[in-house]
Predict the 3D structure of the following.
Amino acid sequence: MSRRHWPSLTALAARAGKWVAALRSPVLHSDDVPPHGRQQADVPGAAARLLAGKRGPRASVVIIQDGRLLMMQRIKNGKEYYVLPGGTIKSGETPAMAAVRETREETGLNVWLAEQLDILEHKGRIEHVFLASKFRGTLRLGGPELARMSEDNQYHLLWLDYQQLQQLKLRPKNLLMYCQEWLLPPRT
C-alpha cells in the first residue's frame, strides 16, 4: 500500500501563483476547450478550493437572444432561485474554459466568448461572468444537472426578459443590476 504524498505549503504557494495567472487568460470558444475541460493541473483541486473558498470559484456565461437572457431555474428542497449557465472551475482550467465547458454540458450550446464582463461574489464564492458573442446548438438540459434531476432538485432552462428577471430571486444577488445593462437599451 503506497502513501499519498501531499505537497508542502511552500510548493502549494508556488503553484498558486501559476493558478492565479491562469485566471487572467484571454477568452475563447468551444473548439478551444479539451474534452471535459481537463488539462494538467497546476494546483491540486483541494488546494484550489482552499485558496478560493469551500466551493471554489464559478464561471458563467451571459447568453442573450431577442432581448431575453438564458437562465437556469433551480428548485432545491422547495427553494427557488435562478443562475446563469455555468459551474465550478475545475483544477487546471481557466475561468473561460470552465464557462464554455459548463455551458455546453448544461445547455447543449456551443458558445463563443466575447469578453469577461465582471467578477461577482455570492456568499464568499467568486463568479467569473463572460458574454457570449454567439452560440450554436439545440437548447436542452444535460450533464450532471439532468442526471441529478428529481422532485426535490430541479433544473430548468428559461429565456427571460428584464421585467421577468425583476420578479425573481437571482444568484448572485447583484446580478439584476447587470441584467438591466445587458438587456435594456441605454437611456438617452
Observations:
- Helices lie at 9-22, 45-52, 95-107, 143-148, 162-166, 175-183.
- The CA atoms of residues 89 and 98 lie 5 Å apart.
- Confidence is low (pLDDT under 50) at residues 1-7, 16-26, 34-44.
- The chain is about 30% helix and 30% strand.
